[in-house]
Amino acid sequence: GENVEQHPSTLSVQEGDSAVIKCTYSDSASNYFPWYKQELGKRPQLIIDIRSNVGEKKDQRIAVTLNKTAKHFSLHITETQPEDSAVYFCAASINWNYGGATNKLIFGTGTLLAVQP
Amino acid sequence: EAQVTQNPRYLITVTGKKLTVTCSQNMNHEYMSWYRQDPGLGLRQIYYSMNVEVTDKGDVPEGYKVSRKEKRNFPLILESPSPNQTSLYFCASSPSGTGMDQPQHFGDGTRLSIL
Predict the structure, then answer these.
(1) Angle A97-B53-B63 (CA atoms, 0-180°, nearest 5)?
(2) pLDDT-based confidence at residue A97 (cuts at 50, 70, 90)
(3) pLDDT tens, A11-57?
(4) Strands B110-114 and B10-13, how do they pair?
(5) Contact, B45 vs B34, CB < 8 A?
(6) Which backbone phi and psi does A68 adopt, to 5 degrees?
(7) DSSP E strands: which ranges in A26-110?
(8) Contact B33/A105, CB-based, under 8 Å?
(9) Cα A53 from Cα A70, distance rounded (Å)
(10) Residue B65: exposure state from Cβ atoms within 10 A (0-12, 13-18, ≥19)
(11) Alpha carbon B108 to chain centroid, angstroms
């Protein structure tokens, strides 16, 4: 079945440094890759997403890269700040037409990012 | 305000006592989904619905039921809860009903404890 692996499970960086979280997916049909941030006790919230027809996307200090051949995608956070501390989840979806197969979203197991002041 | 509302937020109950967690969204979204979140396992999809009267199993559907009689509501039913269903549950919705390629909006979560 479909699977998303996420590494590392924990990441500690100094404020101002960069952080990189990597995910690999198993199903070559996956074509949508969102990243969610979950602060302690809160709901997951989308921070950035990328579709399979794009190799890279940026939004201020956050960027996501996608390598379809290798089936992996990464989240890059530059100039980290203490408020970036949270759990980050990657996910991969399969976008099939209704009447086809599944319309599921498979999540990675999460990365706890700690930004030390 | 656009939102996904889950109730209750917290529930402690006993094995075998049927319970329902409600989920309602006010964004006219077609796609709705339930996830459970467990330490070290991330978010796992239980069931999803692409539109009214259309539901399908996610990765961990055993022990759960859902229904989608109205577009805005997607309740999660545990007919005979067991301790291994103790978890944090999230409902989510997204605009698209025919493809899972749009951001999902999550509710605030329901923490269930089954004794």
Answers:
(1) 95
(2) very low
(3) 999 999 999 999 999 888 888 999 999 999 999 999 999 988 889 99
(4) parallel
(5) yes
(6) -70, -35
(7) 30-38, 45-51, 56-59, 62-67, 72-77, 86-94, 105-107
(8) yes
(9) 15
(10) middle
(11) 11
Q: Tell me if B56 and A1 make a contact (CB, 8 A cut-off).
A: no
Q: Are A115 and A15 in contact (CB under 8 A)?
A: yes
Give contacts of B3 with chain A, Cβ < 8 Å.
Answer: none
Phi, psi values for residue A62, rounded to 5°: -115, 140
* CB–CB contact B45 A106 (8 Å): yes
How would you classify residue A18: left for phi > 0, otherwise alpha for psi between -120 and 50, otherwise beta?
beta
Interface of B with A in 89-108 (CB under 8 A): 90, 97-104, 106-108
